[in-house]
Amino acid sequence: MKKDWRYSSYPFMREKSCLVDYEIRTDSLTTSIGAVFPLLTEEEQIVKNDLCMIQPLCYHANGSVRGKLAIMEDDLQWLSGRYDFYVEQTGEKTKQFVLPGGKEAACALHSARSEAKKSYRALHKVSEERDVPEILFSFLGLLANVLFAMAVYINQVNGISEIPFESKSYPMKRK
Question: Which of 68, 83, 146, 173 is deepest in the core (most CB within 10 A)?
């Protein structure tokens, strides 16, 4: 009997490898970035433009372990430049730990940031099973920071103040 693909959302779902978890995580990351688009206004077009470049990179990161490596050094350099741009725009605000919040688009960017971190962690688990290109760790770590900086930028553009978080568990360095 021919397999009916309507019952399979993903062909590797039953594999035992952590790679499947990584691929599902990066799919979630890509999806969460897509959820930001309808929340952005014309004043936030620069973020939308950057996310249009970032979203396909996330799917490229997804396939870069099982398939051919599709995240390249020029992708990492471009993303690093975007990080520098947002940090330059927001200044010291990106150097503090803040409670995720503010404008809805900023909240969605914080959720995407969290997905990038989960993807990084899933990739670490994969690296315990097989060799993983180091550039993928660099990409996901930088991406989490870019998404954070974008969230801070969105709030700043909209006149929303960040709420700093001070941990009672860990001592924070004072500047």
Answer: 146
Q: Tell me the pLDDT tens digit for each residue of 6-38.
A: 666 555 555 577 789 999 999 999 999 999 999
How far is 74 from 56, CA to CA, in rounded Å? 15
CA gap 116, 28 in Å, rounded: 9
Crossing angle of helices 104-127/19-34, nearest 10°?
A: 170
**Tens digit of each residue's pLDDT (9 = 90 or more) over 126-174:** 999 999 999 999 999 999 999 999 999 999 999 998 877 787 887 766 5
Take residue 4 and report the two structure tokens written for it: 């009916």
Q: State whether residue 160 is helix, strand or coil.
A: coil
* Residue at token pair 């992708």: 75
Task: Residue 51: name the closest of 66, 68, 29 by CA.
Answer: 29
Cα 105 from Cα 115, distance rounded (Å): 15
Structure tokens at 59: 């799917």
